[in-house]
Design goal:
By secondary structure, the protein is of the alpha+beta class. It has one helix at residues 53-64, and strands spanning 12-14, 26-29, 35-40, 49-52. Helices cover 16% and strands 23% of the residues. It is globular and about 35 Å long. Pfam families: DUF397. Residues 10-64 form the DUF397 domain.
Length: 73
């Protein structure tokens, strides 16, 4: 089982692709080797998604290329 990185001192930044609203943004934390923590700014206390850096890179490249993004909920 892999352990979750300590995010207590994480410096979260809003995605440049978010709509600019204070609480309607995707946030990421940099500085974790081979990992990218991702969270929803509406629920900062919730457990973030921890993605492999390569997976995050593929996702970002797809967004930049205009790939379809599906939302659920």
């Amino acid at each position: 089982m892999k352990s979750t990185p300590d995010l207590s001192t994480a410096a979260w930044r809003k995605s440049s692709y978010s709509d600019g609203g204070d609480n309607n943004c995707v946030e990421v934390a940099d500085g974790y080797t081979n990992l990218v923590p991702v969270r929803d700014s509406k629920t900062p206390a919730a457990r973030p998604l921890i993605l492999a850096a390569v997976s995050w890179s593929v996702f970002v490249d797809g967004v930049k290329a205009g790939a379809a993004v599906h939302t659920f909920g």
